[in-house]
C-alpha cells in the first residue's frame, strides 16, 4: 500500500538549487508507485513553515520531510510531529541540537564541513599567506551561518597567516555580491582571495574583479557549484568550489524517509558526500544542471 | 455605528464584501479538500491567523488614524528575541519557569517603546508615518541583528514552547488570546472616547485639532498599541517555535496591510472597523491553509494571492461606489 | 545656525533640506574614510546606483501623479529573467524589444487597474508584486538563467561598456534623468502629471484626461524597469528569479529621500537622483569604513528620518510640527 | 446697547505673523455681553486669523486677550471653550464618517467609566440642540449623508453645547438656504438675549445691517475703526473697508444681442433635473436662480461633459453636439468656473500661472516644450485685467486669499476665449469690493459677445447681472423672467415651487 509523505521546503525559487531539488524530489516520488507526496514551500518564513508542519500533522501523513528555514525555531513543531507519532526526516540543513531527539534522521550535506573544505582550498590556493574577503549568504539563515563558521574556524586554525579583511553579506544575490566586491576593490589595494557562500555570488565577485582588471591575482572560492561557476572554472578564472548535487540531496532525503518507514535501522546523521571541486579535478564531475 | 436598525444582512454583506469572500472560500475548500472541514484544522487556521491578526488589529487603529506602520515585522522579531533571550539571563537563573515573566514583560515593553518612538517622531517632526516607519523597518531589523548577533536564540525551558500547545476546552490558548484582543480592540474602537477620536483624527485631522483633540499624543498612543500588539504577536510566535530568529516577520507588514485593507479600512483614514479586519485576516488564513491542503504549487500561490487581492478590491469598488455623486471624474 | 536660517525662511539653499542633508553627509563620510572621495569610488557608486536609480525615476513620476508603485521589484525580476533567457534563444536584438513589450504590458495592467478602474494603488501594486513574482517563477521553472557567451555579445555594453571612459550604466541613468526632468518640468505631459497628483478633481474640471495621465505614469515606470533590467542583465550576465526582491522599498526610500511627497503633486526628478545617490553612498561609505551591514540599516534609518525632516521643516519654516 | 458694562472679551494689540505675511498688525477688538459685533474686511484682511487667535488655534506674537477682566493665555481650543469662547469655523470642520452627535461634541464626548462614550447622554443632548435649531434630522445620522446646509447646521450646533460667553460665527451663511438663515438669526437673537457676546463675520451687508449692533473693520491686518450700526450706512463701511465707494448701479444700456449660441432642449438627468430647455444668445447674461440643491450645478456639469444626460439635446450654434468629456466641452468653446474653487477649481500646490494655463497647456507649446513666454503673457494679461493681487506668478495658489483664488479660476477660463462661459456661484465668500468687480466683469464679457450663464443663490447678484433669469425648483425650470419684468416676489415664488398662471 502507498505511503503519504509530506515535505516542506525552505524557499523554492530563491535559487536553482532548491528548484532542482524540488523537481528531483517529485521525479523520484513519481518513479515510485507506492509513494504519494505532498509538496509545500515555506517561502523562507519560519512561521509559515510551522503552519505547514501543523497542516501536515493534521492531515496525518505517514512521514514528514522538512528543510528547515531555521534549525532552532522548528524544534517545538518537530516535537509536536514526533508526539503525534509521525517520523520527521530533516533534509539539507540540520535542526538544532535540542531537536535531535525528536527527529528520525537527518539527510543532507554538511554545511560546516563545506566551509572547512573551502578554507582548506583557500589555504592551498594562497600557499598559506595573503589577504582575503568573504561574501556571505543572507544574514541570519542557517546555511549561511554554518558555512561561514566552518570556514572561519578552519582558516584560523590551518593558515593563521591568511588575513580576513572583511565579511559582508551578498544575500545569495549575484548583483548584490558584485556591488559588495566592487566596494572591496576600492577599499583594499591588495586582495588575494575571495570566499563566497555560493558560486552564484562568487561569479558576481568575479565579474566585479574582471571589470576592474584585477581578477588575475585573486583566487575565487565558492560553495554549491553552479553551472556558471563550473564554466568559470573551465575558463581558469575560478579556483574552486564544493560540489553538491541537489538531485542526490533530494533522492537521499526520500530514500531515508522510506527506510525509516520500512522500519530499517537508519543512523541519525546521513551526510552525503560533497567533494571539493577545483580546476584540476573538474573533469571528474558533470556540469551542474543549474 | 449609526442607524444600526435599517441594516439588512444583505446590505451588511455588500458593505463588507470580505465576509462574503470568507464564506465562499470556506465552502470552496470544504468541497475541494478532505482535510479542510475538520475542527482541528479550524484550530490550526485560527492559531496561524493569530500572528498576522494581532498586528492587524493595531494596524486598523493606525490606519484609521490616517497613518501606517511598516516597522511591525521588525518589532515582532526584536520582541521575540527579547522574550526568548531574557529567560536565560543569569539574574533569573533561579526563578524556574517564572523567568518567563520578566522576559515576556520586557519584550512587550520593547514593543511599546518602539511604537512610542515611531509615534513621537511622527508627531514632532510631522514627517509622514509611511516614511518614518519605512526607515524604522530597516533600522529595527538592524537592532535585531545587533542584539542577536545574527544567530537564533532558543528557549532552554520547554515550558515556554508548551504554552503554545495549551488549550482551554476545544480552543487553543493562542487563538483565545487573539480573539480576546480582537474583542478588546473592537470595543476600544467602537465604544471608547479614544476610539471615536481615532476616527475623528483620521477623518479630518484639522477638525480634530480645532476640536481640541491632542492629535500628536493621540497618534502616539495608537502607535504604542500597535507596538504592543506586534510584540505580543512576536512573543506568541516565539512560544510556537521555542526560539527567535533574526529574520522573523519579514514581509509581515505587507500581509498585515493587505488583511486590513481587504477588511475595508481606508488607507486615507477615517474609515474601517475590527469586524472587517477580522474578515480580512481570516480570508488570508483560510486561503493559505486551503492552498497548503490542496497542494497548490508554490509558484501559483503567489499568482493566486496577488490576483485575489486585486479581485476583492474590484468587488469592493463595485459595491461601495465612491461618493462622487455620479460625476465622471 | 541652520535652524535660525530655517526659521527666517532663509536663503534658497536652506529650503533645499535634502541638498543640505546630502552635503553634510558627504562631508562626514569624506572625513571618515580617505578612499571615499576618490574618482574611482565615486564612479563606482554612480555605476552601482544606476539600476535602482533608473527605476526610481519612473516611480518618482508615478508618485508625483499621486500613486505608488510597489510592483517594480518583481517586475525587475520578470524583465531581467526574460531578457537574459531570451538572449540565447532569439538573440539580443529581438530579446530586448520582446522584453520591453512584455514589461510594458505589466505596466499597462497596473495603469488600467489604477488609472481607469481607480483602484487603490498601494494594494494593486502589492497584489501585482506577488502575482508577477509567481509569473517569473512559472516562466523560468524556478531556475537561474545565464547568458552562455558572456564575452561575445554586444548586450554586454549596457552593463559593462563605457563611452569616453564613462560607464554605460551611468550614461543611461544620466540621460534618462535629464530626459525625464525635461519632460516633467517643461513639457505639457509633466505639467499634467503634477496637476493630476496635486488635485485630481480639479484636473478633470480643467479638461485633463486624468485616467490617461495616470495610465501613462505606470507605462513610464514599466519602461524604466525594463531599462534597469537591461543594465542589470548585462552587468550580471544572468539572472535569478528574485533579483528584484526588496528593490521596491529601496526605490521608494530613494524617492522619498528626494523629497517627493507621497501625497502627490510635488517632487522632482533631479532630487530623486540625489536620494538615490545618498542611499548608494551610505552603503558604500559604511563598507569602506568596515562597518557591518546592520550598521548600514541603522544609519539609513537615521538618515531617512533626519533628511526628510529637514526637508519638511524647511518647507514649513519651523523645525517641529505645529500639531499639539 | 452699549451700557457701561465690562466687555465679555477684549483683544488688545494683537500681532500675528506667518512666514512672509503680517496677518494681524496690532488689532484691538472688544465684544460686550449681549452684543452682536460684526467683523468686516476684504478677503485676506485677517478676520479669520483674529478669531483663530481668540480660539486658541494660533498663538499671537504680541498683544493680549482679556476675558471678564482677566488677561488669559489660550493655547488650545479646549481651553478657549473652557473660557466660554466658541468658534464656528468658516471652512466646514466636520468628520464626514461620524455621526452628527459625535461631531457636535467632538473633542469632548461625554464619558462613562473606563473611557467609554456615554452614548445616551450624547444623543440626548445633541438631539435637544438640533431640535432647538429646528433641524429635521437627528444626531444619529452620519454627516456625509447630510446636505451642505445641514452640515453647516451641525457646525453651528457646536455653539450651543456649552454656556458660552462669546460665540464667533465665521461666515456661517455662505452655504445656508434662506429658511435656515431665519433659524440661525433666531438663534443669534436668542443667544443675545441671554447676554452672550456674538462676533459675526460675513461679506453680506444686508445681514450685517439687520443683525449687528456694532461693526469693526479690518484692512490688510490692521484695525480701521469701530462704528455703531445704527449710526452708519453701507457706503461708509465700504469706504472704510476698501478705501473707496462702490458703484452698485447696473448699466442699463440694452444689450446688443447676437445669434443663439447655446440651445438646450428637454435635457434630463433624473432625478437631478428634468425637461430643461433654455437658450443663451451671444452678448447675453442668463442667471440661474434657485435654492441650494435645485439642480443648477448639475446642469452646468452636464453641459461641461461631466455627467451623462438621460435624454435631450444640446445645440451649439444650432448644431447638435455630443459632449462626453470636459475636453469635448472645451473644444466646443464651453468654459465652466466651478462651484467649489478649492476642490474643483484649483491645484492648490501649483503656482498661479500654471493653474491659469492648465486647460490649454497642451496648446501653449513651442516645439515639444511648454512656452514660458506664452504662458506669462496670458498670466500677465489676466492678472492686470482682473487685478489679481499676488507677488509673482510663482506664488503657490494655496496661500492666496479666497477672492484672489477665485479670480485665478475665472482668469483660467476667460483665457480660453470661450463662446459660452458658465460661472457657478462666482462670488461665494468674496468681499464686496471684489464682488462688484466680478459683476462688472461679467457684464463686460457679455458686451464683448460672450454667452454667459451665471448660477447663483444670491438674489441681488442675479438681479444685478442678468438679462434674463431662469428660476429653478427641485430640478425643474419654473419660470423665465426678463430683467424688466422680474420682481423679487415673483422670483421667490418661483423658486419655492409655487406655480403662477404665466409660468414658462
Ligand atoms: N496658516 C497660514 N499660513 C500662512 N499665511 C496665512 C495662514 N493663515 C492665514 N494666512 C494669511 O493671512 C492673511 C489673513 O487671512 P484670513 O484667513 O484671516 O483672512 P480673512 O479676513 O478671513 O479672509 P476671508 O474673507 O477670505 O475669509 C491672508 O493673507 C492669508 O493668506
Ligand atoms: N442631499 C445632499 N447631500 C449632500 N450634498 C448635497 C445634497 N444636496 C446638495 N448637496 C451639495 O450641495 C451643493 C449644491 O447642490 P446642487 O449642486 O445639487 O444644487 P445647486 O442648485 O447647484 O445649488 P447651488 O449651486 O446653489 O449650490 C453641491 O455641492 C452638493 O454636493
Ligand atoms: Mg476668513
Ligand atoms: Mg450648486
TrEMBL record, chain B:
It is found in: Cell membrane. Keywords: Cell inner membrane, Cell membrane, Membrane, Transmembrane, Transmembrane helix, Transport. The chain crosses the membrane at residues 12-33, 45-64, 71-92, 98-117, 129-148, 168-189, 223-243, 297-315. One of its GO terms (molecular function) is transmembrane transporter activity. The keyword Coiled coil does not apply. InterPro entries: ABC_transp_permease (IPR001851). It is a multi-pass membrane protein. GO terms for cellular component: plasma membrane. The keyword Flavoprotein does not apply. Its main location: membrane. This is Monosaccharide ABC transporter membrane protein (CUT2 family). It comes from Roseinatronobacter monicus.
From TrEMBL, chain C:
Pfam families: BPD_transp_2. GO terms for molecular function: transmembrane transporter activity. The chain crosses the membrane at residues 12-33, 45-64, 94-116, 122-142, 163-184, 215-237, 249-282, 294-314. Keywords: Cell inner membrane, Cell membrane, Membrane, Transmembrane, Transmembrane helix, Transport. The keyword Cell division does not apply. PANTHER family: ABC TRANSPORTER PERMEASE PROTEIN YPHD-RELATED, ABC TRANSPORTER PERMEASE PROTEIN YPHD-RELATED-RELATED. GO terms for cellular component: plasma membrane. It is found in: Cell membrane. This is Monosaccharide ABC transporter membrane protein (CUT2 family). It is a multi-pass membrane protein. Its main location: membrane.
From TrEMBL, chain D:
Keywords: ATP-binding, Cell membrane, Membrane, Nucleotide-binding, Repeat, Sugar transport, Translocase, Transport. It comes from the Bacteria. The keyword Metal-binding does not apply. It is a peripheral membrane protein. It is found in: Cell membrane. Residues 9-245, 243-499 form the ABC transporter domain. PROSITE patterns: ABC_TRANSPORTER_1, ABC_TRANSPORTER_2. Its main location: membrane. It holds the Pfam family ABC_tran. GO terms for molecular function: ATP binding; ATP hydrolysis activity. One of its GO terms (cellular component) is plasma membrane. This is Monosaccharide ABC transporter ATP-binding protein (CUT2 family). The lineage of its organism: Bacteria, Pseudomonadati, Pseudomonadota, Alphaproteobacteria, Rhodobacterales.
Amino acid at each position: 500500500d502507498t505511503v503519504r509523505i509530506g515535505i516542506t521546503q525552505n524557499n523554492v525559487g530563491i535559487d536553482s538549487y532548491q528548484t532542482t531539488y524540488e523537481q528531483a524530489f517529485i521525479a523520484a516520488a513519481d518513479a515510485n508507485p507506492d509513494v504519494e507526496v505532498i509538496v509545500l514551500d515555506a517561502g523562507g518564513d519560519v512561521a509559515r513553515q510551522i503552519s505547514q508542519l501543523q497542516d501536515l500533522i493534521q492531515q496525518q501523513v505517514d512521514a514528514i520531510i522538512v528543510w528547515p528555514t531555521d534549525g532552532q525555531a522548528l524544534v517545538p513543531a518537530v516535537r509536536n510531529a514526533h508526539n503525534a507519532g509521525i517520523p520527521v526526516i530533516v533534509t539539507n540543513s540540520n535542526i538544532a541540537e535540542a531537536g535531535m531527539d525528536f527527529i528520525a534522521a537527518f539527510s543532507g550535506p554538511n554545511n560546516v564541513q563545506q566551509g572547512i573544505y573551502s578554507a582548506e582550498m583557500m589555504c592551498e590556493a594562497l600557499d598559506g599567506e595573503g589577504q582575503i574577503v568573504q561574501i556571505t549568504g543572507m544574514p541570519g539563515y542557517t546555511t549561511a551561518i554554518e558555512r561561514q563558521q566552518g570556514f572561519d574556524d578552519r582558516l584560523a586554525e590551518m593558515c593563521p597567516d591568511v588575513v580576513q579583511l572583511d565579511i559582508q553579506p551578498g544575500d545569495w544575490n549575484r548583483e548584490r555580491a558584485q556591488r559588495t566586491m566592487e566596494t572591496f576593490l576600492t577599499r583594499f589595494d591588495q586582495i588575494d582571495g575571495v570566499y563566497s557562500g555560493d558560486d552564484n555570488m562568487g561569479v558576481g565577485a568575479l565579474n566585479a574583479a574582471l571589470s576592474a582588471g584585477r581578477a588575475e591575482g585573486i583566487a575565487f572560492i565558492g560553495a554549491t557549484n553552479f553551472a556558471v561557476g563550473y564554466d568559470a572554472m573551465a575558463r581558469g578564472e575560478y579556483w574552486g568550489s564544493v560540489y553538491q548535487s541537489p538531485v542526490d540531496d533530494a533522492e537521499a532525503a526520500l530514500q531515508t524517509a522510506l527506510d525509516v518507514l520500512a522500519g530499517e535501522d537508519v543512523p541519525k546523521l546521513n551526510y552525503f558526500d560533497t567533494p571539493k571541486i577545483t580546476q584540476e579535478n573538474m573533469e571528474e564531475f558533470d556540469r551542474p544542471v543549474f | 455605528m449609526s442607524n444600526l436598525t435599517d441594516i439588512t444582512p444583505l446590505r451588511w454583506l455588500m458593505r463588507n464584501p470580505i465576509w462574503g469572500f470568507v464564506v465562499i472560500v470556506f465552502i470552496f475548500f470544504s468541497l475541494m479538500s478532505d482535510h479542510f472541514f475538520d475542527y482541528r484544522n479550524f484550530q490550526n487556521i485560527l492559531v496561524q491567523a493569530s500572528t498576522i491578526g494581532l498586528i492587524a488589529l493595531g494596524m486598523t487603529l493606525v490606519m484609521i488614524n490616517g497613518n501606517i506602520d511598516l516597522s511591525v515585522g521588525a518589532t515582532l522579531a526584536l520582541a521575540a528575541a527579547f522574550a526568548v533571550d531574557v529567560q536565560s539571563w543569569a539574574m533569573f537563573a533561579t526563578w524556574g519557569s517564572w523567568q518567563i515573566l520578566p522576559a515576556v514583560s520586557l519584550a512587550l515593553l520593547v514593543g511599546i517603546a518602539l511604537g512610542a518612538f515611531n509615534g513621537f517622531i511622527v508627531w514632532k517632526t510631522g514627517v509622514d508615518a509611511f516614511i518614518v516607519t519605512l526607515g524604522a523597518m530597516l533600522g529595527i531589523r538592524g537592532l535585531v541583528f545587533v542584539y542577536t548577533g545574527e544567530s537564533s536564540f532558543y528557549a532552554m525551558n520547554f515550558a515556554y514552547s508548551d504554552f503554545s500547545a495549551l488549550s482551554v476546552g476545544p480552543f487553543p490558548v493562542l487563538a483565545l488570546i487573539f480573539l480576546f484582543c480582537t474583542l478588546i480592540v473592537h470595543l476600544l474602537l467602537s465604544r471608547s472616547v479614544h476610539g471615536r477620536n481615532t476616527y475623528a483624527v483620521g477623518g479630518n485631522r484639522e477638525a480634530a485639532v480645532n476640536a481640541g483633540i491632542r492629535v500628536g499624543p493621540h497618534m502616539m498612543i495608537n502607535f504604542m498599541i500597535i507596538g504592543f500588539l506586534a510584540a505580543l504577536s512576536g512573543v506568541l510566535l516565539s512560544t510556537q517555535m521555542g526560539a527567535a530568529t533574526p529574520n522573523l516577520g519579514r514581509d509581515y507588514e505587507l500581509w498585515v496591510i493587505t488583511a486590513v485593507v481587504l477588511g475595508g479600512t481606508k488607507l486615507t483614514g477615517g474609515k474601517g472597523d475590527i469586524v472587517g479586519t477580522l474578515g480580512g485576516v481570516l480570508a488570508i488564513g483560510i486561503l493559505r491553509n486551503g492552498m497548503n491542503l490542496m497542494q497548490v504549487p508554490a509558484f501559483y500561490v503567489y499568482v493566486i494571492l496577488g490576483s485575489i487581492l486585486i479581485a476583492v478590491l474590484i468587488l469592493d469598488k463595485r459595491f461601495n461606489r465612491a461618493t462622487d455623486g455620479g460625476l465622471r471624474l | 545656525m541652520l535652524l535660525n536660517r530655517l526659521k527666517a525662511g532663509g536663503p534658497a539653499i536652506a529650503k533645499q533640506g535634502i541638498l543640505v542633508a546630502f552635503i553634510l553627509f558627504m562631508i562626514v563620510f569624506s572625513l571618515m574614510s580617505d578612499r571615499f572621495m576618490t574618482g574611482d569610488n565615486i564612479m563606482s557608486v554612480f555605476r552601482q546606483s544606476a539600476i535602482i536609480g533608473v527605476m526610481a525615476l519612473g516611480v518618482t513620476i508615478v508618485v508625483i501623479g499621486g500613486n505608488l508603485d510597489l510592483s517594480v521589484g518583481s517586475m525587475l525580476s520578470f524583465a531581467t529573467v526574460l531578457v537574459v533567457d531570451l538572449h540565447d534563444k532569439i538573440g539580443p536584438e529581438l530579446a530586448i524589444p520582446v522584453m520591453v513589450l512584455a514589461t510594458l504590458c505589466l505596466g499597462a495592467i497596473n495603469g488600467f487597474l489604477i488609472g481607469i478602474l481607480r483602484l487603490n494603488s498601494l494594494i494593486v501594486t502589492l497584489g501585482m508584486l506577488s502575482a508577477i513574482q509567481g509569473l517569473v517563477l512559472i516562466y523560468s521553472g524556478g531556475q537561474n538563467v545565464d547568458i552562455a557567451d558572456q564575452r561575445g555579445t554586444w548586450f554586454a555594453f549596457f552593463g559593462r561598456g563605457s563611452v569616453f571612459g564613462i560607464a554605460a550604466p551611468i550614461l543611461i541613468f544620466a540621460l534618462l534623468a535629464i530626459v525625464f526632468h525635461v519632460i516633467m518640468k517643461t513639457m505639457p505631459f509633466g505639467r499634467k502629471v503634477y496637476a493630476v497628483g496635486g488635485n485630481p478633481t480639479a484636473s478633470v474640471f480643467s479638461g485633463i484626461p486624468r485616467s490617461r495621465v495616470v495610465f501613462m505614469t505606470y507605462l513610464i515606470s514599466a519602461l524604466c524597469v525594463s531599462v534597469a533590467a537591461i543594465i542589470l542583465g548585462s552587468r550580471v550576465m544572468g539572472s535569478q528569479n528574485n533579483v528584484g526582491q526588496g528593490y521596491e522599498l529601496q526605490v521608494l526610500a530613494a524617492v522619498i529621500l528626494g523629497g517627493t511627497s507621497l501625497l502627490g503633486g510635488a517632487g522632482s526628478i533631479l532630487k530623486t537622483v540625489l536620494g538615490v545617490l545618498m542611499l548608494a553612498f551610505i552603503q558604500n561609505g559604511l563598507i569602506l569604513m568596515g562597518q557591518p551591514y546592520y550598521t548600514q540599516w541603522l544609519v539609513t534609518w537615521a538618515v531617512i528620518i533626519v533628511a526628510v525632516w529637514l526637508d519638511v521643516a524647511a518647507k514649513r519654516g519651523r523645525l517641529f510640527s505645529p500639531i499639539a | 446697547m452699549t451700557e457701561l458694562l465690562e466687555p465679555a472679551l477684549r483683544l488688545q494689540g494683537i500681532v500675528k505673523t506667518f512666514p512672509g505675511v503680517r496677518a494681524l498688525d496690532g488689532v484691538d477688538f472688544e465684544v460686550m455681553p449681549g452684543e452682536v459685533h460684526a467683523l468686516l474686511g476684504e478677503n485676506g484682511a485677517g478676520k479669520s486669523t483674529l478669531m483663530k487667535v481668540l480660539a486658541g488655534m494660533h498663538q499671537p506674537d504680541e498683544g493680549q486677550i482679556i476675558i471678564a477682566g482677566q488677561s488669559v493665555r489660550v493655547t488650545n481650543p479646549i481651553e478657549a471653550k473652557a473660557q466660554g469662547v466658541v468658534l464656528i469655523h468658516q471652512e466646514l470642520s466636520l468628520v464626514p464618517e461620524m455621526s452628527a452627535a459625535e461631531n457636535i461634541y467632538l473633542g469632548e464626548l461625554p464619558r462613562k467609566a473606563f473611557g467609554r462614550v456615554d452614548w445616551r447622554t450624547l444623543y440626548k443632548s445633541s438631539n435637544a440642540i438640533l431640535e432647538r435649531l429646528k433641524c429635521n434630522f437627528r444626531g444619529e445620522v452620519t454627516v456625509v449623508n447630510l446636505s451642505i446646509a445641514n452640515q453647516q447646521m451641525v457646525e453651528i450646533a457646536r455653539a450651543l453645547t456649552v454656556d458660552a460667553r462669546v460665540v464667533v460665527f465665521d461666515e456661517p451663511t455662505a452655504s445656508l438656504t434662506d429658511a435656515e438663515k431665519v433659524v440661525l438669526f433666531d438663534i443669534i437673537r436668542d443667544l443675545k438675549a441671554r447676554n452672550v457676546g456674538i462676533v459675526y463675520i460675513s461679506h453680506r451687508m444686508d445681514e450685517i445691517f439687520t443683525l449687528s449692533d456694532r461693526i469693526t473693520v479690518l484692512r490688510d491686518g490692521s484695525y480701521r475703526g469701530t462704528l455703531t450700526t445704527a449710526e452708519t450706512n453701507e457706503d461708509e463701511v465700504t469706504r472704510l473697508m476698501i478705501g473707496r465707494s462702490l458703484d452698485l448701479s447696473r448699466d442699463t444700456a440694452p444689450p446688443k444681442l447676437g445669434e443663439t449660441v447655446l440651445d438646450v432642449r428637454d435635457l434630463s438627468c433624473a432625478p437631478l433635473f428634468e425637461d430643461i430647455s433654455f437658450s443663451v444668445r451671444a452678448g447675453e447674461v442668463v442667471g440661474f436662480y434657485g435654492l441650494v440643491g435645485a439642480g443648477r450645478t448639475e446642469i452646468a456639469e452636464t453641459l461641461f461633459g461631466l455627467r451623462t444626460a438621460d435624454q435631450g439635446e444640446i445645440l451649439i450654434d444650432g448644431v447638435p453636439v455630443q459632449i462626453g468629456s470636459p475636453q469635448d466641452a472645451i473644444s466646443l468653446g464651453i468654459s465652466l468656473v466651478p462651484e467649489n474653487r478649492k476642490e474643483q477649481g484649483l491645484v492648490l500646490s501649483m503656482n498661479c500661472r500654471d493653474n491659469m494655463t492648465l486647460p490649454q497647456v497642451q496648446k501653449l507649446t513651442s516645439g515639444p516644450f511648454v512656452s514660458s513666454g506664452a504662458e506669462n503673457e496670458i498670466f500677465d494679461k489676466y492678472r492686470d485685467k482682473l487685478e489679481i493681487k499676488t507677488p509673482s506668478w510663482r506664488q503657490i495658489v494655496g496661500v492666496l486669499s479666497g477672492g484672489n483664488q477665485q479670480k485665478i479660476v475665472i482668469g483660467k477660463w476667460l483665457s480660453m476665449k470661450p463662446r459660452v462661459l458658465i460661472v457657478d456661484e462666482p462670488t461665494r465668500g468674496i468681499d464686496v469690493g471684489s464682488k462688484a468687480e466680478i459683476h462688472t466683469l461679467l457684464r463686460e464679457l457679455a458686451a464683448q459677445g460672450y454667452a454667459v450663464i451665471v448660477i447663483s443663490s444670491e438674489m441681488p447678484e442675479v438681479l444685478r447681472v442678468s438679462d434674463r433669469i431662469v428660476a429653478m425648483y427641485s430640478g425643474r425650470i419654473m419660470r423665465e423672467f426678463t430683467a424688466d419684468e422680474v420682481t423679487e416676489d415673483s422670483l421667490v415664488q418661483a423658486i419655492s415651487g409655487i406655480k403662477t398662471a404665466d409660468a414658462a
